[in-house]
Automatic annotation (TrEMBL):
NCBIfam families for this protein: rocF_arginase
Cofactor: Mn(2+)
Keyword annotations from UniProtKB, A to Z: Arginine metabolism, Hydrolase, Manganese, Metal-binding
Biochemical pathway: Nitrogen metabolism; urea cycle; L-ornithine and urea from L-arginine: step 1/1
Catalytically driven reaction(s): L-arginine + H2O = urea + L-ornithine
Protein name: Arginase
Amino acid sequence: MNMRPVSIIGVPTDIGASAIGARMGPEALRVAGIVEAIARYGCPVSDWGNVTGPLNPQRGPVDGFRHLDEVAAWNRTLHDAIFAELEKGSLPLMVGGDHCLAIGSISAVARHCRERGHKLRILWLDAHADFNTSAITPSGNIHGMPVACLCGHGPAELTGIGGRTPVISPADIRLIGIRSVDEGEKRFLLEQGVEVFDMRYIDEVGMRRTLEMALDGVDEDTHLHVSLDVDFLDPEIAPGVGTTVRGGPTYREAQLCMEMIADTGRLGSLDIMELNPALDHRNMTAELAVDLVESLFGKSTLLRLYQS
Ligand SMILES: [Mn+2]
């Protein structure tokens, strides 16, 4: 179980999305009790408030990107904040905010791993592959591009944050829960050799086997980063997100996923992204996200004696 101090950093912006509202995500997660939920399982936890950045000008895309300068500014600030927490020995928990911000958080995590000689494994839990580029994106929304940017495909302002391009290799990441991929994106995922566990895979082999595969090779020298896009979850249980796609994991499947991640004891950093309170019902999606976070930090139904 994690005993590193957890540092919560809020990133209140929807700069990379076209639907606005994810800027309210950090406060909704706090209202739903995210700090208390982590503390309940014995982890020291501090809430460091929010980082700040440019306002959302709500302009259209320019050369295939919406708000590129503003997205870059937020991600640079975030990189510095997350990197500082990792250097202190903390487990940074970014509460967003739209998913373009994972460029900043994962750039910091990858730099930390590089400098410390740790292996890195990223689990990207999402309905979408987020592997678009300006050439293939239908929308120009950068929250559809973070995985491609991290793998070195994107504008220099985003691909080199943290001092090295590419930030990660496709071999470092596993995409899980995917059920909506754009046409050009499908081809690009295949060409780049990204490992994707889509919903069909989960339907056929189950969440347990999926997680065993996705975590294969994770050892005591691995830093595990989880980037949870709330749209990973089925919209029946998680309506508070701008880009719902039906047919996602159920409550039990999502809990099993989190419990299996917790069992590795390797969780080193976490993003909770895309919560949009303007689309939620009575904060139910934020409460669900907090429920899942509890499992990630050690809640289990029974005492499990094999856990240390
Ligand atoms: Mn996403």
